[in-house]
Amino acid sequence: MDFKITLKNVRKNFSRLLVFDSVNFELTIGSSLAIAGKNGSGKSTLVKIIAGLLSPSAGEVIYQIDGKKIDKLDWFKYIGFVAPYLQLYDEFTGYENLEILARIRGLKNYKNKIEEVLKRVNLYARRDDLVRGYSSGMKQRLKYACALLHEPIVLILDEPTSNLDAEGVEMVWKIAQEQKKKGILIVATNEAEELQMCEEVINLDELKLKSREQIVK
Amino acid sequence: MLSSIWAIFLKDLKSELRTRYALNALFMFVVVTISMILFSTAGEVVSGTLLSGLLWVVIFFSAMSGLSRTFVSEEDRGTVIFLQLATRPSVVYFGKLLFNFALIFGLNLFIVIAYLLTMENFKVKSFDVFLVGLILGGIGLASASTIIAAIIAKANTKGTLYPVLSFPVLLPLLMTTINMTQLSIEGATFSETIGHLRILISYSAVVIIASYLLFDYIWKE
Ligand SMILES: Nc1ncnc2c1ncn2[C@@H]1O[C@H](COP(=O)(O)OP(=O)(O)O)[C@@H](O)[C@H]1O
Ligand SMILES: [Mg+2]
């Protein structure tokens, strides 16, 4: 299978605030992209646009399988997403959150998959506790479980290691390595070390400088 | 698709039963409004027609305070992205619509029972007309409230805007259902209310179809 994400001249502005202009890249299976930049440079905005949670002000994002465009409404089937602003249902347990997600997604034989991801993020022992009682690191782990449940082709991580302990950070690196083998990995981060997770880097601060130079010319 | 809609409905139902986010407030609201009507009309003979109108006042305001919860709570808690990443917008819409149907049926049942028990002059002569009016009115109310709640959830002034925006949209529905309830008290036959039924059914159909078409745009920024 041939899977491709293309961004063509993507621009985003919130009314008069221009976040970025003309972002261009192409990702296929096996490729990985780190998005770097200062706080407020638009990393989260860009990953939201890639995931289809936000619409670009100009330009387009294209998902393709074997050269055929995928309807934007179906992108969710291919995406796993972890971010600080993604919240889980804290009135449910970790297991229930995953079960709800599996049912909404219409996954088959989800019981085994849930147990598998829970073990992978090391939450199995606490699966029947309410998420309300989870620490922020445990919540972050549960987000990984949610993101990996359907074995997505595209894994998008915004601030991947926030709130995680050393062992959790190691888990993230492992997940990132495995994802690169079979799919696409996109990481938005302001930690220099985490940029190493990916083969390619796009720096939004530099991008801004470049486009400004062009305007001056 | 259908099983996903059902999954959203079950999630909301389970969440509501566990948190009593809307239920407790609704219960108190109904008890308080009905007691107020009782106190303020004590010792007076209130006509059935007037009581029909008051019944829908109770239903309208309690529906307004309860039906917006499904969307507003997702938006407030930041769980919207969870759903956006899990399924198509239309699935979320129909799941929420289903939940609001369930909520309004439960609510109306409770209100009507409380009303019939406390209001002596509220005597329904044509029960079929009354029941159909109540059910179709509830469906219409839930349909319009669901899409308005989806819009309001994105706005900053969630609470206050809701009844304001809902009222003009719901006016034709309310006038028809109030009239139908009055007719049921006067003992009208079912066939006399066919015109009302047509209005109620087409109202809900139009609102649901329009919402379905609109929802993709409302749901994602
Ligand atoms: N919904 C929004 N409305 C207006 N401005 C926004 C909105 N979301 C983000 N911004 C602005 O866009 C810029 C980029 O934000 P963000 O993508 O969150 O940055 P980062 O993730 O790189 O720290 C910031 O200046 C922020 O204030
Ligand atoms: Mg960010």
Explained architecture:
The complex is a heterodimer of chains A (217) and B (221). Chain A is built from six helices and nine strands. With 217 residues, chain A is of the alpha/beta class. In chain A, helix 5 links the parallel strand 7 and strand 8. In chain A, helix 3 packs across helix 4. The radius of gyration of chain A is 18 Å and the shape is globular. In chain A, 42% of the residues are buried. With 221 residues, chain B is an all-alpha fold. Chain B has one domain. In chain B, 83% of the residues lie in helices and 0% in strands. The longest helix of chain B has 30 residues. Chain B starts with a helix and ends with a helix. The interface between A and B is medium-sized, with 26 and 27 residues. The structure holds adenosine-5'-diphosphate and magnesium ion (MG). The site of magnesium ion has 3 residues of chain A, from helix 1.
Tell me, what's the shape of chain A?
globular
Radius of gyration of chain B: 18 Å
Q: Which segments of chain A are poorly predicted (pLDDT under 50) over 5 or more consecutive residues?
A: none
By DSSP (H or I, 4+ residues per run), the number of helices of chain A equals 6
> Largest protein interface?
A-B, 26 and 27 residues
Q: Enumerate the spans of chain B where pLDDT stays under 50 for 5 or more consecutive residues.
A: none
Largest sheet of chain B: none
**What is the arithmetic mean of pLDDT of chain B?**
91
Listing every helix as H and every strand as E from the N terminus to the C terminus, the arrangement of chain A reads EEEHEEEHHHEHEEH
> In oligomeric terms, what are we looking at?
heterodimer
Instruction: Give the strand content of chain B.
Output: under 5%
Q: Any guess at the CATH architecture of chain A? A: 3-Layer(aba) Sandwich
Q: Structural class of the helices, strands and pairings of chain B?
A: mainly alpha
Biggest sheet of chain A: strands, sense, closure? 5 strands, parallel
